[in-house]
Amino acid sequence: MASTATPHVPEDHILGVYNRAPLAFERGEGARLYTAEGEAYLDCLAGIATTGLGHANPKLVAVLKAQAEKLWHVSNIFRIPGQEKLAAALCEATFADEVFFTNSGTEAIECALKMARRYHWANGEPDRIEVIGFDGAFHGRSYAAVFAAGNPSYVEGFGPPLPGFRTLPFGDHEALKAAIGPETAAVILEPVQGEGGARAFPEARLTELRKLCDEHGVLLIYDEIQCGLGRTGKLFAYEWASDAAPDIMCVAKALGDGFPVGACLATARAGSGMVVGTHGSTYGGNPLAMAVGLAAFEELTRPETVENVRRATGRFAQGLAGLKDRYPDVIEEIRGKGLLIGLKLVSNNRAFMAAARERRLLIAGGGDNCVRLLPSLLITEAEVQEAIEKLERTCEDIRASASS
């Protein structure tokens, strides 16, 4: 019988910015990915917290097919009813009054940064341009986003620092109080960092941060691109804290379950400076994206989805605590919130990821020598147990390699 494997095509013509794993997948179903040869992998990476409802979710597939046969794109010079429906759903579920739709999280961040500066300009304070962020942050790869995060490895070689951005130590409230001044426009942070090593901002600190921003007339921006939309066991991570709602919030990833959809949410006050002509997008919010986004949001906000996240979180917490006790020479610390789980390792995190792939388990890397588990929010009890078992075998492999 002739082979049905997809022929390998060299990546000679692809810009060399990715350190790819030596794997390619042909299809996915739920929490599984399959190679062309039929090898199944348990996916606890989910496209980096993106396929929150699993691969090829039947409800989303049906919606995508139906919309694809009607209308893909028209341009934002016309009304797009799908935008109106999804914006209303997002605002009803959050602090927000209005929404701008994008194709990605990075674009949502760009909108948020422009909105914050424009707000102060429109209110007679054009010198308020500084945006304060925290080390370990990741806000995307665009020019402003990398400087808002301030990660040295992401800004090196791209010219002089973009003015108006300042990075402080993660969670240092005293440093933040000292840094806020008459030129501060906004504070931006991820309530739970992803790339930075699955570090959760203490809930009490979020409440204090909201109060501090109010005292100084500073806008508060949350980046919930990775930690939002149910991943922590609430619809958004900021909801775990009391009186900590932002002025602006960026979401993406799970909003399209892999289809490119992002959004910048804002209060009417924060968005008041953004008038006709100040911002726009060719593809953002087109009918195809809105159909998928609305269907995904409906599924993400179902009580059953959030309840499953909480159950799976408890099972992971119990299993991982046991692994940490049995393998203290491999796992140093368990971090994160909900199903944004970080394992800070004693061993090299890249070696751990490769060893997990050999056990047919896919996990993500992270800063501070962490690996991340970011599974589908619909992951089953049996799949959680399977993930724990595969992680245990990975720990055994790492221990054996260290002693050999």
Can you put this structure into words, describing what you see?
The chain is α/β, with parallel strands linked by helices and 404 residues long. It has 2 domains: 27-56 and 304-403, Aspartate Aminotransferase, domain 1; 71-300, 3-Layer(aba) Sandwich (Aspartate Aminotransferase, domain 2), CATH 3.40.640. It is 37% helix and 16% strand. The protein contains 12 helices and 15 strands. It has helices spanning 46-49, 58-68, 81-93, 105-122, 143-149, 152-155, 173-179, 203-216, 287-300, 303-326, 349-358, 381-403; strands at residues 27-29, 32-34, 40-43, 98-102, 130-134, 165-168, 184-189, 219-223, 248-251, 262-266, 331-337, 340-345, 361-362, 364-366, 370-373. A hairpin with a 2-residue loop joins strand 11 and strand 12. The longest helix is centred in the last third of the chain and has 24 residues, at 303-326. It starts with 26 loop residues before the first strand and ends with a helix. 48% of the residues are buried.
Salient structural properties:
single chain; 404 residues; alpha/beta; Aspartate Aminotransferase, domain 1; Aspartate Aminotransferase, domain 2; seven-stranded mixed β-sheet; four-stranded mixed β-sheet; 15 strands; globular
Provide a count of the helices: 12
Oligomer: single chain
For the report, how would you describe the main beta sheet?
7 strands, mixed
What's the number of domains?
Answer: 2
Write out the strand line-up for the largest beta sheet, numbering strands in chain order: 4-10-9-8-7-5-6
CATH topology descriptor of the largest domain: Aspartate Aminotransferase, domain 2
Shape: globular
